[in-house]
Amino acid sequence: MKFCPQCAAPITHHIPAGDNKLRYCCLTCDNIYYQNPNNIVGTLPVWQDKVLLCRRAIEPRKGLWTLPAGFMENGETTLEGALRETEEEAGVTIPAAHCRLYSLYNLHHINQVYFFFLADMQSPDFDAGEESLEVALFSEHEIPWDNIAFAVVKNTLQQFFADRVNARYPVRMFDVNYGDDRQVDMDCVSQSES
What we know:
Order of helices and strands: EEEEEEEHEEEHEE
Strand content: 35-45%
CATH architecture of the largest domain: Alpha-Beta Complex
CATH class of the largest domain: Alpha Beta
Number of domains: 2
């Protein structure tokens, strides 16, 4: 940010009085512009013994498989956003009553928080949206594990299949860190039974 959206004066980058973080500030009109993490919301849609995945038509990771998810919009809840993204990317409408929070990932190094909801599909009907090259149902052994777009998606799928053995789906929260060798470390920082 270079100029104030309110008065067009140049923006400075400093710690305002009473704060402890660098912020974009306008010294002319005294506005402070806070930057907050982006929320990514999505679902893990399930039909019988299969999960629904989308092959990405957009960057990043174009051509790889993922769960239907995207950025939450202003004015919607995390679940509303997840259901909207599922409909936009996979052509699936899932009633809110058939969803429950399943996993949360803190990616503090890129200022993102991921929310995935376990979602029971009401039919096996789906259709690729503009951001998906194709959409398909996969059993556990059919999943293209080497072509999953994001580590948080792969981890969510692995957790789901492990949980399915006992038919218990606790909510988990992870802190995601990337080491110097770009290896992903996911620390499970909480777990609650649902």
